Automatic annotation (TrEMBL):
Signal peptide extent: none
Any one Gene Ontology BP term: pentose catabolic process
Keyword Mitochondrion: no
Cited SUPFAM superfamilies: NagB/RpiA/CoA transferase-like (SSF100950)
Annotated catalysed reactions: alpha-D-ribose 1,5-bisphosphate = D-ribulose 1,5-bisphosphate
Organism: Methanorbis furvi
GO function term, MF aspect, one: S-methyl-5-thioribose-1-phosphate isomerase activity
Protein name in UniProt: Ribose 1,5-bisphosphate isomerase
EC number: 5.3.1.29
Source taxon at top rank: Archaea
Keywords noted in UniProt: Carbohydrate metabolism, Isomerase
Family in the record: Belongs to the eIF-2B alpha/beta/delta subunits family. R15P isomerase subfamily.
Active site positions, chain numbering: 126, 195
């Protein structure tokens, strides 16, 4: 698959979920480099790779895993002295990111499973590899668990979730998103994934997550967020807000019906923000932490100083828009 094809698949959601988007984008960068002729001109190579990175960055705006992963790969490429060194660094960093991303999922699954008691009912939302990993690991350990899964309008990612749960013989209850509060009394805990986590511990995830967290809080049920460390958004330290992706109206209301309703406006935000106060714990590969410690992850695990953030990273999202 070419880089442009990967970018298109991310934008059209054939490739989706924050972790997978990051892994596929990095693999696309690595493979794109192999298609470029060797000229010996390191500056031209870096320019071409920056352009490729900007195309990927323009695909979806919310999942911070995408710019974080690209930054991890491109950071040392930018200072390479020869084209060969730049190519080698790119390859090594890309492979290392993909490997560590998979390892992170395994660690999160092991830790998350410890928080799922035998005999419990877990509610989940959307289709998160990190969240599902914990549930599958709990099942693998022989725990008798059930899952309550939402539909996830308008893209129905819940169907992917219930397919995985069914394939793993986990008893599952499926319902429309608006039934969440009614179902809350029947479950024991909530486990979801994340697209981005801000410095104040707020979690950006699939639209509807904040309603689930609010209902869980009301019903005194724990909310666990599972997130690899590369889903923490360092630029929020500088005050930058996470952009909430708005997708096309016709994902919600078909064009032919919308055409008959000239006074009706359709909004389709696909992520929302859950404040830290509604989250009991964030499980990362570096351990489980209260959401208010998000800053420590940004400092210690992502390791980007403020200077670097200001000098390079702020510009990373202003690349070419992909259409
Ligand atoms: O909100 C979504 C996916 O939204 P979309 O379907 O719009 O991409 C997932 O909960 C997170 O991305 C985490 O997923 P993972 O744990 O797999 O990274």
């Amino acid at each position: 698959m070419t880089l442009l094809q990967t970018a298109e698949q991310i934008q059209t959601m054939q490739i989706r979920g924050a972790g997978k988007i990051a892994r596929e984008a990095v693999a696309a960068l690595r493979d794109h480099a192999e298609t470029l002729p060797r000229t010996g001109d390191v500056a031209a190579f870096i320019r071409e790779m920056e352009h490729a990175a900007s195309i990927l960055l323009g695909t979806r705006p919310t999942a911070v895993s995408l710019p974080n992963a690209i930054q991890m790969v491109m950071r040392d490429v930018r200072t390479a002295r020869t084209e060969e060194a730049a190519r080698r660094i790119l390859r090594e960093k890309a492979d290392a990111f993909i490997w560590s991303s998979r390892t992170a999922l395994d660690r999160i699954a092991a830790m998350g499973a410890n928080h799922i008691p035998d005999g419990s009912i877990v509610m989940t939302h959307c289709n998160s590899k990190a969240a599902l990993g914990c549930i599958l690991e709990a099942k693998r350990q022989g725990k008798d668990i059930e899952v309550y899964a939402t539909e996830v309008r308008p893209w129905n990612q819940g169907r992917l979730t219930i397919k995985t749960l069914n394939d793993n013989e986990i008893p599952t209850t499926y319902f429309v998103d608006s039934a969440v509060r009614s179902m809350m009394k029947e479950i024991d805990l909530v486990i979801v994934g994340a697209d981005a986590i801000t410095v104040n511990g707020a979690v950006v995830n699939k639209i509807g997550t904040s309603q689930i967290a609010l209902c869980a809080n009301e019903a005194r049920k724990n909310v666990i967020v599972t997130a690899e460390t590369y889903k923490f958004a360092p630029r929020t330290i500088l005050g930058e807000l996470i952009q909430i992706e708005e997708r096309a109206q016709n994902e919600v209301l078909p064009d032919d019906i919308a055409a008959t309703l000239p006074f009706v406006r359709v909004k389709n935000p696909v992520f929302d923000v859950t404040p830290a106060d509604y989250i009991d714990m964030i499980i990362t590969e570096a351990g489980a932490l209260p959401p208010h410690l998000a800053y420590t992850i940004m400092r210690e695990y992502l390791g980007w100083g403020l200077d670097e953030l200001q000098n390079q990273f702020l510009g990373a999202r202003t690349g070419t828009e992909f259409r």
